[in-house]
Write a structure and sequence with these properties.
Length: 648
């Protein structure tokens, strides 16, 4: 029960209260020190029922009401769940951990002296109660009672204590018309009064923080809403982002690094978190899809200036990938030195579509109800892009301390490129690094990647804008020459591989195609179900676009990639193209995955399911500051399948 849009810390008490109960409304209390986040669930029962249907699988065995779910989680008798009112809003609040040296959020003017004692991060959820007394009696009275109750003198919260160790799964208590739930009893006492006494009186102020919710005048149309304080962005949120990127590096490091442009942008995004002036989050669930939106504004400073130089544009380069791609990503990078954002030789500004062609998905205007992405960004000047080394520099895990966080150029994936190629000679290793650096310097303003899985096996696609075609051609020739000396190993089996390089021809496709062939050094045919004995990596430059493909059927993959626009591209798949295209030319990056079709393809049933993807878009708008937005939305079937992947 965490996510959604903001509840303010000092509310207007006029008008009705979302959290009104049968008891007299208690006086509000001040926000706790180090307040990090506040959230509201307007309709817990309806939200849980939709979530339960979306997730499916094991969730089908859980109770249908939010009260029943809470009872199961807390080891309460299921009969007391009737006392919990899942039709009234639930609220939550969280505080930052404090090490006892710094000072809390909001206390810098009131108490400039350092604190002398530390505190842990705390979080409390408050569920509205129909009958508080019935809940207390059902838990504490009778021969089969599993809990005892004590009233805290300072807060007047009735705190429950489990009589058996196996029932002490979480801490809980009752104040007024609210059941308070936390990890520890001290959390209930510290944050519970604010959740039960203050937040219910402020629920009628939604939406807040400049985030417009369509239809809010008729009542909330979201399922979860949260406001995250700026101090939390510089603390726990930043740490979580660092860990997530580190985990991604660990998972991918055994196979290959993230493409440099993707790795660079991830590192930039992580280092921007401390520069965000808080964040507002909204979760909306319906019968057909789930959508999560995160909105933030950057504080004035160096980071804001740097982000203004980021390239933005529409999603057309990604939509030109083959329609059978099951996952893909688009990254837009800072324009090369001396080039204005959006400009690129031989292409429409920022789209990656060849001159004289209409980019798919580029004509649809952004939705007016979206607070970010309502107009094309303005302002910003070109700047040189300092790309990370192809060798993958180690990542610093030290959090920014004070001032403006630099936008790092380090890759989140540490990877020994020369080692992976099996180049032991120092001169060859240096030549390889130089060739890859030339490829990076020749790159244009966008990179689109895709993954497919057909009857023959997996395949990969790459489309990338080219800024300097001569530099790229030279780098590719150097790379091919060095590949002949490479002695890599299979990352799965550990077997030695042999690399051959050269050119090949695709039937009915004019021009040469470069080819790198990786094959097992040991001769012989692979047993049934094993990986093939060889895999080709094919690539070529077509005007100002670099095209590459690999896989079990790399020739077919490259041919599909060169098909141009039309029915053979992702632009013709409405289930993917529509959500990716709704924001016009405001995209920093975008990605999608179709988990259902991935699962079916791996099971030997490619093409057996209709498209149903989870789509991610990252956007920027310049209007009275730099505003950033991240949206994740997915069809019900895609969300359910992805949940099955993630659940233990």
């Amino acid at each position: 029960m965490a996510g959604g849009l903001a509840v303010t810390a000092c509310g207007d008490k006029e008008g009705g209260s979302l959290g009104a109960g049968t008891a007299a409304v208690p006086a509000a209390v001040p926000a706790p020190k180090d307040l990090a986040a506040e959230c509201v669930l307007p309709t817990p029962d309806a939200t849980w029922e939709k979530t339960r249907a979306q997730v499916g699988g094991p969730a089908a065995f859980l109770p249908r009401s939010a009260g029943g779910l809470a009872a199961v989680m807390l080891h309460f008798p299921i009969a007391v769940s009737e006392a919990i009112d899942g039709r009234s809003p639930a609220f939550c609040a969280a505080t930052l951990a404090n090490d006892g040296v710094g000072i809390g959020a909001g206390d810098r003017e009131a108490d400039p002296k350092p604190q002398t004692t530390g505190s842990q991060a705390r979080a409390v959820i408050g569920l509205h109660l129909r009958w508080p007394e019935r809940l207390v009696d059902g838990l504490t009275k009778g021969t089969s009672a599993r809990f005892s109750a004590n009233v805290d003198a300072a807060t007047q919260i009735t705190v429950f204590t489990a009589r058996a160790p196996e029932d002490a799964v979480m801490a809980s208590g009752v104040y007024g018309n609210y059941l308070l739930i936390a990890a520890r009893p001290e959390d209930v006492l510290a944050v519970g009064p604010y959740v039960a006494r203050t937040l219910p009186q402020q629920g009628d102020r939604l939406p807040t923080a400049g985030v417009k919710i369509a239809g809010a005048a008729e009542g909330p149309n979201f399922d979860l809403a949260m406001h995250i304080a700026p101090e939390a962005m510089r603390g726990g949120v930043y740490t979580s982002a660092e860990r997530a990127v580190g985990l991604l590096g660990e998972r991918l490091g055994a196979w290959m690094p993230l493409p440099t442009a993707v790795a660079h942008r991830l590192r930039e995004a992580v280092n921007l978190v401390p520069e965000m002036d808080g964040a507002d989050v909204r979760l909306t669930i319906d019968s057909n899809a789930t959508r999560l939106d995160v909105y933030t504004t950057l504080r004035k400073g160096e980071a804001e200036t740097a982000v203004k130089r980021w390239e933005v544009g529409d999603v057309s380069p990604l939509l030109l990938l083959p329609k059978d791609a099951l996952a893909g990503a688009l990254v837009r990078r800072t324009a090369p030195s001396g080039e204005a954002p959006g400009a690129q030789s031989g292409t429409k500004a920022g789209t990656g579509a060849p001159d004289g062609e209409t980019a798919p998905g580029s004509t649809k205007a952004p939705q007016k109800s979206d607070p970010v992405g309502t107009q094309a960004p303005t302002g910003g000047t070109a700047a040189a892009s300092t790309q990370p080394s192809a060798t993958g520099a180690p990542v610093s895990t030290q959090a920014p301390t004070g001032g403006t966080a630099p936008v790092s150029t380090q890759s989140p994936v540490e990877w020994d490129l020369a080692g992976a190629f099996g180049l032991g000679d120092a001169k060859d290793a240096a030549a390889l690094r130089e060739a890859v650096q030339k490829m990076e310097a020749s790159a244009g303003n966008w990179l689109a990647l895709g993954f497919g899985y057909d009857g023959t096996g997996p395949s990969g696609f790459v489309r990338a804008g080219v800024h300097n075609s001569e530099l790229l051609d030279g780098a590719l020739k150097d790379l091919l020459a060095l590949s002949e000396k490479a002695k890599p190993s299979d990352p799965v089996r550990g077997d030695a591989l042999r690399v051959t390089a050269g050119k090949t021809v695709l039937e009915n496709i004019p021009g040469d195609v470069f080819r790198l062939r990786l094959e097992r050094a040991k001769k012989g045919t692979a047993p049934p179900g094993e990986l093939p004995t060889s895999v080709d990596v094919l690539f070529r430059r077509q005007n100002d676009v670099f095209l590459g493909a690999t896989g079990y059927a790399s020739r077919d993959a490259l041919r599909a990639l060169m098909g141009g626009e039309g029915a053979g591209t992702l632009g013709a798949v409405a289930e993917i193209a529509t959500p990716l295209s709704r924001y016009g030319a405001t995209l920093i990056g975008a990605a999608f995955i179709d988990p259902g079709r991935v699962t079916a393809s791996r099971a030997g049933r490619p093409g057996s399911l209709p498209p149903a993807a989870v789509v991610i878009t990252a956007r920027r708008e310049d209007r009275e500051g730099v505003h950033l937005a991240l949206s994740i939305e997915g069809a019900s079937s895609a969300v359910a399948e992805l949940s099955r992947w993630l659940l233990p």
